[in-house]
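re: ur question from earlier - yeah i can do the single chain one, its not a big deal. heres the input i used so u can compare w yours
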Amino acid sequence: MNFTAGPAPVFAIFEVAQLYYAHRYIGPAQIRRKLYPLDTSVAPPPYWFSIAWIVGLGADYGYQVRLFLVPFGLIRLMAFVMIVVSLIGFMVRRHCGLKWGLVVMTFEGALRVGLLLESFSFMVYPPRWLHHLGGNL
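and the output i got, formated as tokens:
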């Protein structure tokens, strides 16, 4: 197995966990009640959890850049799309409210999870048609 492929499922699980916590803290119930996420009765996460989450986000985006540096064409394309989706998501979320921010984050996370798992499958199990093209992903 390619050593670059190994962390992909871990980061896919991280993306799903990020969506879970976003829905928990900025969920539809808080949006319907027009509550700001930091003012709700839900206890904020502990300090160490926040630091670990920031480190996880940095590692996730670092992994996307690392995938972009892999010399295989399709993997680089998927990494490029993941980076572009992340940047567009940041820009859109910055200029919309909580309700649409949650929708954008969900859509962005779903795209990134799909691309991570697809790049993992291409690195671990290259398709048969690839051998006819010279084996270059």
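The radius of gyration is 17 Å. not sure if urs matches, ping me
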